[in-house]
Amino acid sequence: MRTPVYELHIRPMFTATDRDHMIARGLNLWSYDEVVKNAKDILKCLEDGTMPPPAFGGPWPKEWIDLFRRWKEGGLKRLELGAAVITVNRSPNSVTIKATGTFPAAGYHGWLQLESESDTAKTYVLYFEPPNSPVAGTAQTFALTERYGASDTRALFVHDSTGVQEH
User: 85 lies in which domain range?
Assistant: First the structure.
């Protein structure tokens, strides 16, 4: 069974309402560091049904609570921001973003993911997922691509471990 990852499995379970409700109490549920720091208390509140309260969509289904528990007990795994050489090719039919480089170690996987978009811009993030435990061997090179239609002329940004750059 796959180890849950904060950005893929845990963060999406916290709604904007959950976040707003808890920020008023000093806890940002969309912050990995804050959720890790408070994971024991969050799990306790999820298990006893006090978080989130019924008036705000709670309590969570048992499967969600079990997933949070597995994440906590599995080492609080999260994705890493990757580093790569980013190139963008704009053709008459499409815009292709390509990230090339070498993973930090053997067993890593990576991808480009649409992080956000507005009327004027779209931002992709380069994610690396480390293995659950060290893998023997050599780090692999990668060439990751994402493509969208050329009719989309919004500004393009890529978020990686060096920050956010416009391309």
Answer: 80-166
Q: How many independent structural domains does the chain possess?
A: 2
pTM of the model: 0.83
SS3 readout for the chain: CCCCCHHHHHHHHCCHHHHHHHHCCCCCCCCHHHHHHCHHHHHHHHHHCCCCCHHHCCCCCHHHHHHHHHHHHCCCCCCEECCCEEEEEECCCEEEEEEEEECCCCCCEEEEEEEEECCCEEEEEEEEECCCCCCCCCCCEEEEEEEEECCCCCEEEEEECCEEEEC
Q: Which of 79, 80, 99, 96 is nearest to 88 (CA)?
A: 96
Whose tokens are 């969600």? That residue is 64
- pLDDT per residue over 83-120, tens digit each? 999 999 999 999 999 999 999 999 999 999 999 999 99
Neighbours of 166 (CB within 10 A): 10
